[in-house]
């Protein structure tokens, strides 16, 4: 028994509990204290509307899970939600274009009328605000080029070929317990972002599964990753932010003006929020199907067991690594060595607690993803044989060395964010 292990009697069912004093003591028999003691407080307890939304979402997630288990994920390019989303996104883009054309015409046709100048400039300004946005490369995250990381890009090229995806253009490395893929800029630069903490806690085959899942998104028809619809959603968020309430100081006239302006901007915000909700609702089902499709590709490339292992790490060691980094950043020392030591001593009882808690709470990466434990079950249901890509220890060591190059900079950024959070 480890020095930090303790044994006590469960106060609920009287079963003997063996646990680690550094973690939450809980009972595997009756699940007493499964949640952290500070979890269920009045401030964190959901209201009636949130509980209703959770029940509806749980029903939807269960139904979609049964569907993909029974008939697979397919590629719903002609899904009615996709068609409606494209139509609505087109309306958003055409409205911005019409404001630009109308503003320019008004300036040219009425010049030098002050009336025409004011409304013409307003139209052009609104068109600029509502212009399509295709994202930009995160200049703060360390980037690895093909010359700097040949082993990593060679592995990515192999995964991309198996996934039927184009090669990655840029790899970014950051300090999040996550990974992502997307396209940015007018040229559609393909960017893979790897969270170094997540990479550190995965086994080699789970790392292949992670890469296969992310690259699968570039060819699985995920409408949220399609720049046309995504840029329309980004435009609506920009308009919502610009239509903020105004506060005018002065006499009655200024007060009356501010009331009228706030009523108008309030109506704009209400309309924009409605459009955002409709667009996101139209893409909700398909974006979750796209996650299952990416998991299916990853299961074929890295094996179903590897994908299930990745999902398990996301709901067990992932949250633990995040909490450890937040606390360790204040103590100094080698952040990554500390993380490896922490994970090496991570008890199975805490893993099981987090695993059960994730199932109970239907934990997921974010709202566009199905619950992670359902994704793991789906991966294990895939009838794939051996992994399509198998790496040697030497290959993965070279890849690890290339990813470790910016590790010092990322550790400093994590420490800086932790210190900054103390003053917020």
From TrEMBL:
Belongs to the peptidase M48 family. The keyword Transmembrane helix applies. Pfam families: Peptidase_M48. The chain crosses the membrane at residues 83-107, 113-130, 254-279. Binds 1 zinc ion per subunit. Residues 148-379 form the Peptidase M48 domain. This is M48 family metallopeptidase. Keywords: Cell membrane, Hydrolase, Membrane, Metal-binding, Metalloprotease, Protease, Transmembrane, Transmembrane helix, Zinc. Its cofactor is Zn(2+). It comes from the Bacteria. It comes from Microtetraspora fusca. The keyword Cytoplasm does not apply. InterPro entries: HtpX_protease, Peptidase_M48.
């Amino acid at each position: 028994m480890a020095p930090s292990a303790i044994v006590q009697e469960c106060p609920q069912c009287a079963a003997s509990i063996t646990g680690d004093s550094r973690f939450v003591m809980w009972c595997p028999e009756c699940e007493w204290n499964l949640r952290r003691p500070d979890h269920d407080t009045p401030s964190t307890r959901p209201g009636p509307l949130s509980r209703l939304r959770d029940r509806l979402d749980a029903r939807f997630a269960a139904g979609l899970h049964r569907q993909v288990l029974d008939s697979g994920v397919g590629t719903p390019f002609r899904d009615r939600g996709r068609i409606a989303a494209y139509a609505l996104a087109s309306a958003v883009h055409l409205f911005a274009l019409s404001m630009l054309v109308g503003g320019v015409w008004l300036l040219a046709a009425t010049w030098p009328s002050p009336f025409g100048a004011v409304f013409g400039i307003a139209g052009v300004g609104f068109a600029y605000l509502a212009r399509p946005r295709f994202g930009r490369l995160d200049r703060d995250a360390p980037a690895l080029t093909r010359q700097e990381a040949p082993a990593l890009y060679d592995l990515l090229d192999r995964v991309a070929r198996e996934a039927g995806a184009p090669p990655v253009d840029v790899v970014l490395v950051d300090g999040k317990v996550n990974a992502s893929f997307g396209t940015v800029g007018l040229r559609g630069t393909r960017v893979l972002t790897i969270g170094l903490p997540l990479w550190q806690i995965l086994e080699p085959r789970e790392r292949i599964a992670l890469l296969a899942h992310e690259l699968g998104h570039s060819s699985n028809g995920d409408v949220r990753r399609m720049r046309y619809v995504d840029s329309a959603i980004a435009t609506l968020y920009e308009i919502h932010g610009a239509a903020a309430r105004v506060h005018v100081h002065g006499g009655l006239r200024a007060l009356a003006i501010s009331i009228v302006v706030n009523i108008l901007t309030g109506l704009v915000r209400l309309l924009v929020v409605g459009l955002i909700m409709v667009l996101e609702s139209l893409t909700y089902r398909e974006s979750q199907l796209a996650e299952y499709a990416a998991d299916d590709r990853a299961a074929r490339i890295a094996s179903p067991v590897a994908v299930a292992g990745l999902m398990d790490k996301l709901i067990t060691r992932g949250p633990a690594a995040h909490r450890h980094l937040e606390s360790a950043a204040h103590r100094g020392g080698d952040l990554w060595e500390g993380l490896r030591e922490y994970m090496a001593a991570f008890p199975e009882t805490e893993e099981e607690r987090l695993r059960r808690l994730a199932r109970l709470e239907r934990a997921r990466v974010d709202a566009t993803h199905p619950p992670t434990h359902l994704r793991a079950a789906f991966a294990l249901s895939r009838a794939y044989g051996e992994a399509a890509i198998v790496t040697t220890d030497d290959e993965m060591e070279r890849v690890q060395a290339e990813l470790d190059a910016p590790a010092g900079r990322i550790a400093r950024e994590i420490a800086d964010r932790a210190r900054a959070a103390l003053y917020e």
